[in-house]
Specification:
It contains 14 helices and 15 strands. By secondary structure, the protein is an alpha/beta fold. The protein folds into 3 domains: 63 residues, Arc Repressor Mutant, subunit A, CATH 1.10.10; 128 residues, Nucleotidyltransferase, domain 5 (2-Layer Sandwich), CATH 3.30.420; 157 residues, 2-Layer Sandwich (Nucleotidyltransferase, domain 5). The chain starts with 8 loop residues before the first helix and ends with a helix.
Length: 385
């Protein structure tokens, strides 16, 4: 983590500011860092020197072509520093390693025939990291493990209150992962971490007010960012759009009596309509795009109608600049993004629809893992003094 040799809080904050800037915005010259941070040149030089010594950034000479005068060295995140992202789901465990410079170092999907327990999840993470130690993680420094869980997570201590589809209740998955790996662990709701990733690096980059809905095998989760700050709620559980009662105009569209949104807009229902078993999102997307089955077309149209109303309700209540859809919701939207956008706008107050943009997640299958890794970087490398 960032440790100031002089030990004062202001210096730690400035070290974190410089490191966060090059991590999230990309390599910068010392001169550009001076401008971006508001710190003076000598302070930047001192801070960069300490970060180099800590193995967190590297400096290289800039390309001299076309330059006049003495060039400023370029400061980049050290790609040898990595964080692990983990996402346990009902059908698989996804795990990946992501470097501080944004590079995806390794990724695996481990299909499961039975539900993962917290203990088995931690065990698998430990096994994969041990296997990667002589492979993609050789010569790298792993700073922690982030776990993106499909269920409410208590903000105070990372306790998974409930992950109903995994049948987890009050699960201390972070403690188990630390015991299995010897690394610090951070735990968060999968949609909240996906929203963070898309806000920092993906489809919502540059926006300050964002609604994110994630569709996975366990259902639909969501997250909200207001004024650049994630909306956590009193216990950290805000954003559970999947548990809302959907507005269904045509009673013939209802499939679950008194069901919630994730009962009606459902990955499992899409797979059933396509006569598929458990597959990943890329296979699902290909199947939906290529099918000529009238039943599958009817099911996608039904789910898109209900989803449009849910998104319009979110737009009317929260007035976001961007709504981002991830997972199978992105697949549903991408079939006809303009058509879904029009259906949402038709049910949204004109004032709230003016600047609204509807987008699919740009980080694809890595969105949750990137968010989980980012939670580790934030906690371990950019700590609040």
């Amino acid at each position: 983590m960032v440790t100031a040799s002089r030990g004062d809080g202001m210096r730690r904050a400035n070290l974190a500011l410089v490191l966060r800037t090059v991590h999230r915005e990309g390599p910068r010259s010392r001169a550009a860092l001076t401008e971006a941070t508001g710190l003076n040149r000598s302070t930047i030089a001192d801070l960069v020197g300490e970060l180099v010594g800590d193995g967190l950034v590297v400096e290289r000479a800039p390309d001299p072509v076309g330059r006049v005068g003495r060039p400023s060295p370029t400061v980049s995140p050290d790609p040898r520093v990595v964080a692990i992202g983990v996402n346990p789901e009902v059908d698989a465990l996804d795990i990946g390693a992501f470097a501080l410079d944004g590079t995806a170092v390794a990724r695996e999907r481990l299909p499961q025939t039975g539900l993962l327990t917290p203990e088995r999840t931690a065990e698998l993470v430990g096994e994969r990291l041990a296997a990667w130690a002589d492979g993609p993680l050789r010569g790298r420094r792993t700073v922690g493990v982030g776990v993106a869980v499909p269920g409410p997570v208590r903000a105070a201590d990372g306790l998974v209150r409930t992950a109903p589809h995994l049948e987890w209740t009050d699960a201390a998955i972070g403690t188990l992962v630390t015991e299995a790996t010897g690394l610090p662990a951070r735990v968060g709701n999968d949609a909240a971490l996906g929203a963070l990733a898309e806000y920092l690096f993906g489809a919502a980059r540059g926006a300050h007010d964002v609604v994110y809905l994630n569709g996975g095998a366990s259902g639909i989760g969501g997250a909200v960012i207001v004024g650049g700050t994630p909306l956590g709620g009193a216990g950290g559980y805000a954003g559970e759009f999947g548990q809302n009662r959907p507005g269904i105009v045509d009673a013939a569209d209802r499939r679950a009596a008194d069901g919630v949104l994730e009962d009606e807009v459902s990955r499992a229902r899409l797979l059933a309509a396509l006569h598929l078993d458990a597959v990943d999102d890329s296979v699902l997307a290909e199947a939906l795009a290529s099918t000529d089955d009238p039943g599958a077309h009817a099911e996608t149209a039904r789910q898109r109608r209900i989803l449009a109303t849910a998104l319009a309700n979110a737009a009317n209540v929260l007035n976001p600049a961007v709504i981002v859809l991830g997972g199978f919701l992105a697949t549903l939207a991408a079939l006809d993004l303009d058509g879904l956008d029009a259906a949402v706008r038709a049910q949204t107050m004109p004032a709230c629809a003016e600047d609204l943009r509807l987008r699919v997640a740009a980080l694809g299958e890595n969105r949750l893992l990137v968010g989980a890794a980012e939670a580790v970087f934030e906690a371990e490398l950019f700590p609040t003094p």
